[in-house]
Design a protein that fits this description.
The complex is a heterodimer. In chain A, 42% of the residues lie in helices and 12% in strands. By secondary structure, chain A is α+β, with helices and mostly antiparallel strands. In chain A, the strands form two sheets. A four-stranded antiparallel beta sheet of chain A has the order 2-3-7-6, with no helix packed on it. In chain A, a hairpin with an 8-residue loop joins β6 and β7. Helix content of chain B is 52%, strand content 15%. Chain B starts with 6 loop residues before the first helix and ends with a helix. The chains are: A alpha+beta, B alpha+beta.
């Protein structure tokens, strides 16, 4: 067999699309065709709905889809993390049962990792997984669970052994969310939205074949999920937009995107809306205030230099250079930008920043910025954790002496969670 | 826009870094900064000629190598890192760019080859006693006298002004104001009527001079009364050059402070294991990397003729001003008591950070300039 080249991949996918694509198909019907052909996830293995192509060819395949407006497989949300984790660690049973319906978008997933008592210290999870006969019984609470109320399946990290150190006692399960022992309650945020949920387990059941890791290896599997989450973080944050084309399949895709993106609709405000600053400063006349000009300039310098830093990291990667420090700073810098943007929007709006909703500046958008920005420096790893990661991994500084990694988890002091 | 260095540029940087580490250890910096000239003419000539430094960005037609601001930026960054005591910034980043911007073809052919060859040092005298960096602060006058001119007035804050062989001077037609009537001139450093006094500088590694012209004979450089545009261009280029020099110094300070805290033990453990130290080190990395991105972008913007250059040059300078000084403040703090002593090297860069922060306008001034460009 000859090695695939850019040209061969392009002509092959083009020919297949020309023969099969039709906007009049149903979304799931079309995606099943994609799954069968392997063009929905060309970098996946052949026996699991892919074509074993190197990942670098994905952009060519995407280009060809975009060229004729063909819809792709379901990519948004936690389902992609589920797929990556199952491909890396799942059994054939898991792959058979879940992968196709992930790609078709029929199943929705959620991630059950964070707990009220363990945010940054995720390996300190205390949700219990106890064996009863050959089943697992789950009790405890998870939090910050996006789309839990819609999810069919959950990726669950729970403690199965309390007599070993914290990283060694975890197990990784796939949990059926539609069962009586699972209760989902929305978690209202300081900005009025409720994008996340609290999930309570009361004797929820996991059948034995739904264990993904060996008991004790749950942390290793969770690391795979988290790695893909970090890698995809920018994609998750970017705004998915449906095609404006006409046709049944586009209507169905737009509805899917609207549902998936619903929890993220305040995310642009969370990042500070730097894009609105100049326009707002001009329309309020504050552009002529020398003090505010200085603050705006500080913001623009931050946001431009951050953008150029990201471009440097990408350019170095494209050249095949080893990753430099510039690639690890984006998350922390985005917090600085968001905070400075909130400061600037406050100065620009003045007393209008006291009001919200339809009474507020820009029909409440400015107020939403001011009360959403605090999430930026917390979600996905706090600024403090980011600084530790930078100092330990990039600058090779020593870790703080650890007090909990070598003793049985049952002896580790932990939070008392109100029940 | 270019966002990465080519393998050849990386190799060039590595060669320079090795050379400067060997030729400009801090012992040598301390020796030279205590001299009146501020550099060793023979050693500088040798280093310059070996590496072809002052000819780097001079076009081949004028005896140089024809590289751009990308390469000049690399040289300046490495010199900022090594705190090299040499009249490079004055000669290459100021006088050469001024001659390239203002001079006629004939004048470039006459003046630049000896600069490229490392035989002539030069500087650009534009600021006066108020230290301003704009056309309106120029009061030195140039009066026609036969085929030459007579300069009268006093320039100040002139980098390497007390030693430069050739001085490019910005002066005005008597009675003119603002951007009108400005012209560039060249004067020999040792010409009659040129009284040069070295100023006592806080940053001893960057020498400044006050130069009084009393009917000193000068030659017009380029077109008479058309100096405003080439002056603005020269200042923008100087800002980009300085920003690149500054990020080199900031990165060196950051690395030295990091190395020190990793070695320093208190309370039975390395102080680099305390989160308060680690957080500071992470913040320093962020500051320096963002400032580097801005400085590199500005150099690329110069090479690629970006029309946003006036804003980008000011942005890079403002960003570097804050990053370098903040890094220097953190670096002293991370060293603790020893960081405040003369024998520890941190203060050498701290003072360079301070002088660079102010030179050609501080961060407030350049934030405002950037806003002016982006709002009109």
């Amino acid at each position: 067999m000859t090695e695939p080249t850019e040209e061969s991949v392009r002509s092959e996918v083009r020919a297949w699309l020309e023969a099969n694509w039709s906007p009049d198909l149903g979304l799931v019907e079309w995606r099943n065709k994609l799954v069968d052909s392997g063009w929905g996830a060309p970098h996946w293995p052949k026996q699991w709905y892919g074509r074993d192509l190197p990942v670098k060819f994905n952009t060519i395949v995407d280009d060809e889809f975009a060229r004729i407006g063909a819809v792709g497989v379901a990519k948004a949300g936690i389902r992609t993390l589920a797929a990556a984790t199952i491909l890396a660690h799942g059994t054939d049973f898991h792959k058979e049962k879940f992968l196709r319906r992930i790609l078709t978008g029929e199943d929705t997933w959620c991630q059950l990792f964070s707990e009220p008592g363990s945010g940054s210290d995720m390996a300190g999870a205390v949700t219990r997984a106890d064996r009863q006969g050959n089943k697992w019984v789950i009790n405890g609470q998870k939090v910050w669970t996006t789309s839990a109320h819609k999810a069919h399946w959950g990726l669950l990290l729970a403690r199965a052994n309390w007599d070993v150190p914290k990283h060694k006692g975890l197990a990784y399960f796939i949990l059926d969310m539609k069962q009586p022992g699972v209760q989902v309650h929305p978690l209202k945020q300081m900005n009025y939205h409720a994008s996340f949920n609290q999930v309570f387990f009361t004797d929820a059941i996991v059948e034995p074949e739904f264990l993904v890791s060996d008991v004790g290896d749950g942390w290793t599997v969770a690391t795979t999920t988290l790695m893909h989450e970090r890698r995809g973080a920018d994609a998750l944050r970017s705004w998915a937009v449906g095609s404006d084309r006409k046709g049944r399949i586009y209507d169905e895709e737009r509805a899917e995107i609207a549902t998936t993106m619903e929890p993220y609709k305040w995310y642009p405000q969370r990042a500070g809306r730097v894009d609105l600053v100049m326009e707002r400063a001009k329309e309020t006349g504050k552009i002529n205030d020398p003090v505010i000009r200085q603050e705006i300039a500080r913001l623009l310098i931050l946001s431009k230099s951050a953008e150029w830093t990201a471009r440097r990291a990408r350019a170095a990667q494209e050249q095949g250079k080893p990753q430099g420090p510039e690639g690890s700073l984006g998350k922390l810098v985005s917090s600085h930008i968001a905070r400075q943007a909130a400061r600037v929007h406050t100065y620009i709006s003045g007393s209008d920043a006291l009001l919200t909703g339809e009474d507020g500046a820009m029909n409440g958008v400015i107020a939403e910025i001011l009360v959403s920005v605090p999430a930026t420096s917390i979600a996905g790893g706090t600024d403090e954790i980011q600084r530790n990661i930078i100092s330990e991994r990039v600058l090779k500084m020593p870790k703080e002496p650890s007090v909990d990694t070598n003793k049985p988890f049952k002896d580790v002091p932990r939070n008392v969670v109100a029940g | 826009m270019r966002f990465s260095f080519t393998p050849e540029q990386d190799e060039f940087r590595a060669t320079l870094r090795r050379a400067l580490e060997a030729r400009s250890p801090t012992k040598e910096v301390r020796r030279l900064m205590a001299t009146e000239a501020g550099f060793d003419p023979d050693a500088w000539k040798k280093l310059n000629q070996e590496l072809g430094l002052t000819g780097l960005h001079i076009p081949e037609a004028y005896g140089g190598q024809g590289f751009g601001f990308g390469e000049l930026g690399i040289v300046l960054e490495e010199m900022g890192r090594a705190l090299l005591c040499a009249p490079f910034f004055s000669t290459a980043a100021l006088a050469t760019t001024a001659i390239l911007n203002a001079g006629t073809e004939e004048q470039k052919k006459a003046l630049l080859p000896s600069i490229a060859a490392g035989e002539t040092t030069a500087t650009f005298a534009f600021s006066e006693s108020d230290g301003g960096n704009d056309a309106s602060s120029v009061s030195t006058t140039a009066t026609p006298s036969g085929s030459t001119y007579r300069l009268d007035g006093t320039k100040s804050f002139v980098i390497d002004g007390h030693t430069a062989d050739l001085i490019v001077v910005l002066a005005r037609r008597p009675g003119s104001k603002g951007e009108e009537g400005l012209s560039f001139f060249t004067v020999a450093g040792n010409a009659p009527g040129v009284d040069r006094r070295q100023l006592k500088t806080m940053d001893e590694t960057r020498k400044l001079a006050r130069i009084a012209f009393k009917s000193a004979e000068a030659r017009l450089l380029g077109e008479a009364n058309a100096g405003a545009a080439p002056f603005a261009r020269t200042i923008q280029q100087a800002l980009v050059c300085l920003a690149n020099e500054m990020v080199g110094g900031a990165d060196r300070l950051r690395e030295d402070a990091l190395e020190y805290v990793k070695m320093r033990m208190q309370f039975g453990r390395s102080i680099a294991s305390f989160q308060t130290t680690k957080n500071k080190a992470a913040d320093m990395l962020v500051d320096v990397e963002l400032a580097k991105s801005a400085a590199y972008y500005a150099a690329a913007a110069l090479d690629e003729g970006d029309e946003d250059l006036p804003a980008v040059a000011s942005l890079a300078k403002a960003c570097a001003s804050e990053a370098y000084l903040q890094t220097a403040i953190h670096a002293v703090q991370m060293h603790g008591g020893i960081g405040f002593t003369w024998d520890n090297d941190t203060h050498l860069w701290f003072k360079r950070a301070k002088s660079s922060e102010i030179l050609f306008g501080d961060a407030n001034e350049h934030r405002e300039k950037m806003m002016q460009h982006w709002t009109h």
